[in-house]
Design goal:
CATH topology of the largest domain: Rossmann fold
Radius of gyration: 21 Å
Helix content: 25-40%
CATH class of the largest domain: Alpha Beta
Shape: globular
Order of helices and strands: EEHEEEEHEEEHEHEEHEHEEEHEHH
Number of domains: 3
Largest sheet: 7 strands, mixed
CATH architecture of the largest domain: 3-Layer(aba) Sandwich
Number of strands: 17
Oligomer: single chain
Structural class: alpha/beta
Distance between the termini: 18 Å
Strand order of the largest sheet: 12-11-10-9-13-14-17
Length: about 325
């Protein structure tokens, strides 16, 4: 398997970071709404990450990641400029359809701000009037504001505490946009399931087409494992091959959120084992270095540190 070099890293907050990865063929093939499956190292788990941006001229794929679990926290520590990812497969999923709507509302909440950007840019390039609504908890978490201003005709920034833009929830921004644009034809929303559910409810009465991008538990990315099942109306879909975009008015968000909690205990246990291994590595490493400095430890001791991946099932 090839290595994929990280050429740019940017930290937006203590938990949110950007990685720009060199992969010319993928950058050439990528479309808005698609995702990749990444492996940090040979023993690591496979995690799906939505493509936040792609640049054909530079030959790069941009990922914006939140350090919430064992693998994403390990990536936050180890993924620096000049290092490489062990594997990156994609682009996967059905590209988001850039319709012929003349006026579109692109909504991103929290980390969902990143993957909504290619769609906002795609609609703008297709000639639509694009309104962006971005929601964050507080001003310190805001990122890519200028990127969105460059491709949106209007931008509504919302923060829960009012430290930047409109004070309120992201649905307040949607209602403001709907009031100012009764001819709104389509809404595209990406963010946590509870946020996307609220967005769909905000547009339901007005019968505005509302598309959401779901990110359920995913293992292989080819529809074989069945882990990414999503109820859409009276059908069962697989997000990795049928999505990830679906009609927000038909998605069973309650079932989706229940499924996302299925492996909470296992994820917590994996994170605790990894954290403990990291602490042991630092402790053993420090004592071995001290011993080597005193001339009382062989060089081989420095190579026998605990493997932070060993014994961690499922990555």
């Amino acid at each position: 398997m090839s290595n994929f070099e990280i050429v740019t890293r940017e930290d937006f907050s203590d938990v949110t970071y950007l990685l720009e990865v060199h992969h010319p063929l993928m950058a050439k093939a990528a479309k808005p709404g698609q995702f990749v499956i990444v492996m940090l190292n040979e023993q690591g788990e496979r995690i799906p990450l939505t493509i936040a941006d792609f640049d054909q001229k530079k030959g790069t794929i941009t990922l914006v990641i939140q350090a919430v679990g064992k693998t994403t926290k390990q990536m936050q520590q180890e993924c620096q400029v000049g290092t490489s990812l062990y594997g990156m497969v994609g682009p996967m999923g059905v590209p988001s359809p850039i319709s012929h709507a003349k006026k579109v509302l692109c909504v991103g909440g929290g980390l969902g701000v990143a993957p909504i950007f290619p769609q906002a840019r795609g609609f703008k390039e297709a000639g639509a009037y694009v309104i962006g609504v971005l929601g964050f908890r507080t001003k310190g978490l805001v990122f890519w504001e200028e990127k969105f201003r460059a491709c949106c005709d209007e931008l509504i920034l919302c923060t829960n505490d009012g430290s930047a833009g409109l004070k309120g929830m992201i649905t307040d921004g949607i209602k403001l946009a709907m009031a100012g644009h009764p001819d709104l034809e389509e809404v595209v929303a990406i963010g946590p399931p509870v946020m996307m559910k609220a967005c769909a409810e905000a547009t339901r009465a007005a019968k505005i087409k509302t598309m959401v991008s779901v990110n359920p538990i995913m293992v292989d990315g080819t529809g074989m494992c069945g882990g990414c099942r999503v109820k859409v109306g009276d059908e069962v879909k697989f997000a990795c091959v049928d999505g990830p975009d679906f009609d927000g008015h038909l998605v069973d968000f309650d079932d989706l959120m229940l499924r996302l909690q299925r492996y909470t205990k296992d994820e917590k246990a994996a994170h605790e084992r990894w954290s403990e291994s990291c602490r042991m590595t630092r402790q053993v490493g420090a004592s071995a270095l001290d011993a080597l400095a005193r001339g009382s430890a062989p060089q081989s001791e420095l190579l026998e540190l605990p493997d932070p991946i060993e014994g961690v099932k499922g990555g």
